[in-house]
Amino acid sequence: MTTSDEFRSNRDNFCYRHPDRQSFVLCQRCMRTICPECQTPAAVGVICPECLREQRATQTTAQKKAERRWSRAPMTVGTQRPTATYVIIAITAAVFVLQLFIPALEGIFAFNSAFVIPSIAFEPWRLLTAVFLHSSFFHIGLNMLALWMIGRSLEPLLGHARFVALYLLSGLGGSVGVALIAPGIWVVGASGAVFGLLGALLVIGRHIGANITGILIVLGINLVIGFVPGYNIAWQAHIGGLVVGALIGLVFARTRTRARQPLQIGLLIAIGVGLLALLAIPAVFYV
Questions:
Q1: Which residues of 80-97 are buried (b: 16+ CB within 10 A; e: fewer)?
Q2: How far apart are the first and last CA of the chain?
Q3: What is the dihedral of CA 107, 112, 194, 222, to 10 degrees?
């Protein structure tokens, strides 16, 4: 991955223990940038090895006893695993298995813009539940493969909480995109959320000066496939998820410091509220 001179000159973009490794994750105690190898899960976020040593040095006898009692082994520094990615894949797979035995689930949890119109049938949970439903083995296999491939790189870069927020808001963006562009159609699938991950990866990669040619090619091919006649693909969800994911990627790239964390949370909430507000537009098609 290549980087610009401006990016390389900013040491805050690199792990303080491994200057050649870029990261977007900060130690929650000293607020220095740390790479996945230097991240140790803590009560809130992750901490670096130095802060971990200081924390252990100041532990009381009772705290040390509790750690020995509830832990099989002392905490060690290791590579942060894309846990959220694996959990999302597991939940989606479990839901698909349930669909095989209970076909009615699709009718209960699939998304249609009519179900966010109070005068018709107000079931807003469908905006997100549809993300975990899939219509076939090929459908779920393709989406989960993409999630696995992107999540392994993006989640350690962002952290678990940001990654989950990105995934869910992008999925919401996909549903809103369908409601705005093609009101009345039924959709299921995680395509909108996956495109959101691609959009965020594209923006963050561009922000740090990385070579994003490969991402652009993959993104372009997948967008074109959505418009090929004969394929029953909700390209509207792809567009919605992509736009929202790119916007969130920009928010993450510009609000990395501790001082801007409240702003980051506020902007994510604003994006979610804004997406819900956009659902007022399709309502005109039903009156």
A1: bebebbeebbeebeebbe
A2: 52
A3: 110
Torsion sign, CA atoms 87, 90, 92, 95: negative
Percent of the chain topping pLDDT 90: 35
**What does the pLDDT average to over 79-93?**
89
Helices marked H in 111-159: 126-129, 137-158
Angle between helix axes 261-278 and 235-254 (nearest 10 degrees) is: 160
Q: Residue 116: helix, strand or coil by DSSP?
A: strand
Question: What residue ranges define each of the domains in the chain, with the CATH number in brackets?
Answer: 5-70 (no CATH), 83-286 (1.20.1540.10)
Q: Which residues of 233-243 are buried (b: 16+ CB within 10 A; e: fewer)?
A: bbbbbbbbbbb
Residue 64's pLDDT is what? 59
Residues facing residue 187 across a β-bridge:
111
Q: Round to whole Å and give the CA distance between 260 and 20.
A: 25
User: Is the pLDDT reported for residue 78 higher than 50?
Assistant: no
| CA–CA gap between residue 214 and residue 85 (Å, rounded) | 22
d(CA 192, CA 196): 6
Query: What is the value of pTM for the model shown?
Result: 0.73
Nearest Cα to 234, choosing from 192, 171, 276, 196? 192
Query: Who has greater pLDDT, 50 or 68?
Result: 50
Alpha carbon of 193 to those of 27, 114, 157, 174: distances in Å? 28, 21, 18, 7
Whether the pLDDT of residue 126 is over 60: the answer is: yes
